[in-house]
Amino acid sequence: MSDEIRNKNQKAAAKQKEKVAKKEKHELTKEKIQNANVEDLRKQLSNKNEEYVFKLNKNLIEGGFTEDEAKESVDNLIKEIIENQIKGIPANQLYGPVTKKAGDIAHPVKPKKKTPFWALGIDTSLLFLSMFGLLYGVVALTNKKQPTNQTGIITLLILSVLWGYLLTWFNMQMRKPKNERPGWLITIGYLVAGLALMMVFLGVAQAIPATINPSLSGIGYLIVAAVAFGGRFLYRRFMDIRERSFF
């Protein structure tokens, strides 16, 4: 049994060593390509890739590029083409048809702008404000009892902000790659701390004078909900926010 385990370990070690050697060779080859002259690399193109490059250059010129502009655009691709050629991936597989790649070069797609945390927090806070406003409005209209200052407008605003930023933070963690996400214990710890903070705030809010934190009528809360919903729509357009509030 020990010999069998020893053989397995030796095979695993050899396989790992081979994997490391391949990676080092790949990195060395990549470094050589990056440091090489483009004209020298053009000579290493396969017949299929050479034909692709020729057609791409011609297509760009026919599309309005000058010869120098077309050559510069194609030269910027040569190193990547050679790297993939070594892996057995031809240019037409890497970039798609010549016409498509020419179109991508002529009309590059701008990278998506990443919305900062503070802006996403405001967006989600407005969403919660509209939801809470709707909820409190319905409750006030269906409840004959006088609402307490726990549902005052200041309480509503701050509660919406707390929920908005807490949920935004949680969503951003869940959208990260698995290897970059915090552990579940840490995530749950932050959520529990956030919820505890809200409970403390709700307790303190009961002591805020009604003159500072007035309760609204049912219609008043519904107006707040409508304004928050419309304001969020305009805010998202102004800030060009494309992300969803919830994952």
Explained architecture:
The protein is an all-alpha fold and 247 residues long. Helix content is 73%, strand content 0%. It is built from 10 helices and no strands. It has helices at residues 2-35, 38-42, 47-62, 67-86, 91-95, 98-106, 117-142, 153-174, 184-205, 218-239. Helix 7 (117-142) runs antiparallel to helix 10 and helix 8 (153-174) packs antiparallel against helix 9. The longest helix is centred in the N-terminal third of the chain and has 34 residues, at 2-35. It is elongated and about 85 Å long. It starts with a helix and ends in an 8-residue tail after the last helix. The model has no long low-confidence stretch (mean pLDDT 81).
Which structural traits does this protein have?
247 residues; mainly alpha; elongated
End-to-end distance, in Å?
Answer: 50 Å
What string gives the helices and strands in order? HHHHHHHHHH
Please tally the β strands and state the result: 0
Radius of gyration: 30 Å
Q: Considering DSSP H and I runs of 4 or more, what fraction of the residues is helical?
A: over 70%
Which structural class do the helices and strands define?
Answer: mainly alpha
- Give the helix tally: 10
Q: Characterize the largest beta sheet: strand count, sense, and whether it forms a barrel.
A: none
Low-confidence stretches: none
Task: Tell me the strand percentage band.
Answer: under 5%
Question: What is the residue-averaged pLDDT?
Answer: 81
Envelope shape:
elongated
In short:
Helix content is 73%, strand content 0%. The protein has 247 residues and is mostly helical.
